[in-house]
Amino acid sequence: LVGALFATVAFCVVLAMLSLFIFFQFPKQAIIFCWIASAFFSLVVGIIACVQGAYFWGVVGILLAVLSLVFLFFIRHRIPFSALLLKVSTTLAIRFKGMIVINFILVGVATVFMLFWAAEVYPSFERGNDQDVNGGDVVLIIFALLTFYWTTQVLFNMIHVTVSGVAATWYFCGDANMPKNPTIASFKRASTTSFGSICFGSLLVAIVQVLRALARSQRDSEHPFIACIIECILGCVESLVRYFNRYAFVYVAMYGNSYIEAAKRTFELAQNCAYEALWNDNLIGTTLTMTALGMSFISFLVFYVAFSSAAFGSIAFFICLAVHIQLFRVIDSTVVTLFVCFAEEPNLLAQNNPDLYAAIHNANNHGTTNGEQQA
Question: What SS3 string covers the chain?
């Protein structure tokens, strides 16, 4: 069993390396293929739902497929720009492997914390489920939830700021002037001078998550519909704050800004190129998601056939998915950072990497710039 699990992990790592190779060699084709695959998947789900008699969800699936293809058609002019960012991000992830190592280390720390947290708070949650709960338990549960959400947010945002710091350093310094051990230097900044900004931004998300969890706990109350509406609203707020933080933390990593100053600069960026950021995030996000799912499905098929076991195939699927999610977190953070860097300081890229600047400038038909700088 141990040997089989080791072989599974090794095979999943090979698939992850294959994903990076595809992103490096065929970024544009990967984006187009993944978008079409996503639309096809929605179409298949919609048809199956209609066959099963779930016509509402069937129509939703088919409509999503159509809208995905229409969306891809209207933003096709953004694909070359996103493809270049994906290729460069892949190159940086391969070159500065410390970003991937830091990512896995902090994810491991987060996993250990979650296990200890669950063991510590389990008795209080059990009393809550048995309705034998007092005021002290309520306060403890709320505090425990805040601790859980805040700590995990801080750890994952430290990964984002560390990766963003390395990508920004490369952008500002160029290949020739890169300092020694940039990943370690970036992690030091994330865990010291920028740690307060990370904690503050993470706290905002954690508070919304706690409120959402409390609203979710009221589904079985006398007013479940109101609780559901509140939970939905809080879910939208959480998504918006998370998305905003992705860009705000890039400014924290780039310039060492406080969170408030980074938020102001993020608002300025949104005023100048919000749509470009949305299009880019959708193109890259769908590509990463579909690639992770596709490679994980391949892993499932291989080990299902090899061991004639759907259970082992499922284990291989989730291991492969976990490996890709961690690897692609680095790619995603790098893409966002390069987008912000190019929007803020396009001329620096022209100085440090003229060939790449020319390629991105030609692909950037609609001017991804912030303020008066022109790319």
Answer: CHHHHHHHHHHHHHHHHHHHHHHHHCHHHHHHHHHHHHHHHHHHHHHHHHHCCCHHHHHHHHHHHHHHHHHHHHCHHHHHHHHHHHHHHHHHHHHCCHHHHHHHHHHHHHHHHHHHHHHHHHHHHHHHHCCCCCHHHHHHHHHHHHHHHHHHHHHHHHHHHHHHHHHHHHHHHCCCCCCCCHHHHHHHHHHCCCHHHHHHHHHHHHHHHHHHHHHHCCCCCCCHHHHHHHHHHHHHHHHHHHHHHHHHHHHHHHHCCCHHHHHHHHHHHHHHHHHHHHHHHHHHHHHHHHHHHHHHHHHHHHHHHHHCCHHHHHHHHHHHHHHHHHHHHHHHHHHHHHHHHHHHCHHHHHHHCHHHHHHHHHHCCCCCCCCCCCC
Over 80: is that where the pLDDT of 317 sits?
yes
- For the ranges 171-185, 238-252, 267-281, the maximum mean pLDDT occurs at 238-252
Mean pLDDT of 98-111: 94
Predicted pLDDT of residue 372: 47
